[in-house]
Design goal:
By secondary structure, the chain is mostly beta strands. The chain has one domain: Porin (Beta Barrel). The protein contains 1 helix and 10 strands. The strands form 2 sheets. It has an 8-stranded antiparallel beta barrel with strand order 1-2-3-4-5-7-8-10. It starts with a helix and ends with a strand.
């Protein structure tokens, strides 16, 4: 099974879940999100690399203040660096970088600050994210490491706000941070984890029963 087939099945699962859930007394939203990443890699004195971040978001609301959000995102990550290091004998200069394309699949547990009927709904959230390496636009050099791992498990947390435009549509704004929990490379001179921040805008259709 290739990665494109896997992603298609995940998106299909989200859509099927919504269709099955609309008959229950819950509120759902589904729509596109897009924005940017600012990413880096641990144990490197380097600035954050900018990249795009876009995909589909599905949310379930339970009760007045609780919810669950699942997303499938095409996410650009990586690093550009210029560093000097002393290896015990001499001072050496290293310059390089890598651009990586991931498919991120976060599952986020959400707490809302206001009830469903409110026009503005601030929220905080957190949860795990399974990140699948889809492509690398530049080959990592030996200073970073050898053999990129195809999967990454990360933890993600952030805050956002929803604005109800009409009874069936809403806009969203999110600020979040993420940190990889497993090393990126099979072989590396130092421990390397992805980490960074994201900002996302979204437009969502509200399905199911309105409260």
């Amino acid at each position: 099974m290739n990665i494109h087939t896997s992603i298609s099945r995940i998106v299909g699962f989200i859509l099927l879940s919504f269709l099955c859930g609309t008959g229950k007394a819950q509120e759902f939203s589904l729509g596109p999100v897009f924005g940017g990443n600012f990413t880096s890699i641990t144990n490197l004195d380097a600035s954050y690399k900018k990249g795009a971040n876009a995909g589909i978001s599905a949310s379930w609301s339970f009760g007045k203040y609780l919810g669950l959000n699942m997303q499938v995102l095409a996410s650009q990550k990586g690093i550009d660096y210029q560093v000097w290091e002393y290896d015990g004998k001499e001072l050496k200069y290293y310059e390089g970088g890598v651009s990586l394309n991931y498919i991120d699949i976060p599952i986020l547990f959400t707490t809302y600050m206001t009830p469903r009927k409110a026009k503005w709904r601030p929220r905080i959230y957190g949860g795990p994210s399974l990140n699948i390496l889809n492509d690398k636009m530049e080959k990592p050099d030996d200073y970073l490491g050898k053999g990129l791992k195809p999967f990454e498990l990360a933890v993600m947390a952030g805050a956002g706000i929803n604005y109800r435009v009409t009874k069936r549509t809403q806009l969203s704004l999110d600020f979040r941070s993420f940190y990889g929990l497993n090393e990126m490379f099979y072989e590396s001179p130092r421990v390397r984890y992805n980490h960074g921040r994201s900002i996302l805008l979204g437009y969502h259709l509200i399905l199911g029963k309105l409260y």
